[in-house]
Amino acid sequence: MQTNKKRNSKASKRGSGHGKKRKPLNNLFRRIPSYLMWTLISVIVVVYIFFFYRTFVRPYSFRWKALYGDVTYPDGKIRGIDISHYQDEIDWEKLRNADIQGSAVSFVFIKATEEKDMLDENFNRNFFNAHKHGILRGGVPFLQY
User: Fold this and answer.
1) Is the separation of the CB atoms in 127 and 110 below 8 Å?
2) Would you say 119 and 113 are in contact if contact means Cβ atoms under 8 Å apart?
3) What stretches in the chain show pLDDT beneath 50?
4) If 79 and its partner were Cys, which of 10, 17, 93, 100 is the partner (CB 3.0–4.6 Å)?
5) How far is the C-alpha of 104 from the C-alpha of 79, rounded, in Å?
6) What is the dihedral of CA 112, 127, 97, 109, to 10 degrees?
7) According to the model, what pLDDT value does residue 41 have?
8) Residue 126: how many other CB atoms lie within 10 Å
9) Which residues pair with 114 in a beta bridge?
């Protein structure tokens, strides 16, 4: 008798719907063919890579471009100079029209710091004036070992 009661209780549990229920999302994924699912995943990955490249990689790629404004490529040889507080006052108009061995001055490297705590006293003025006169410029930290 006891065995019949156990059997009946097990049978009633199976039929009462207390087992695992399938989630609707799980059913949706089971209905979609696998080739279609992989195609959808591939399209999502390609779109993500495309927008990631356009947003984060391309604007900061390494190429010759002006810091502000349109991209301009210099003609011929590229020549530049470095300057610091040792040059005192710089005639920027003369520098903009100057040439080195027949090629125009394309850029200026400006000394920014020396060692850990010395800021070049003319750095801000030189950096501003180089931009004002249309000369590509960059700051250079000077480290002495």
Assistant:
1) yes
2) yes
3) 64
4) 100
5) 7
6) 30
7) 94
8) 23
9) 118, 142
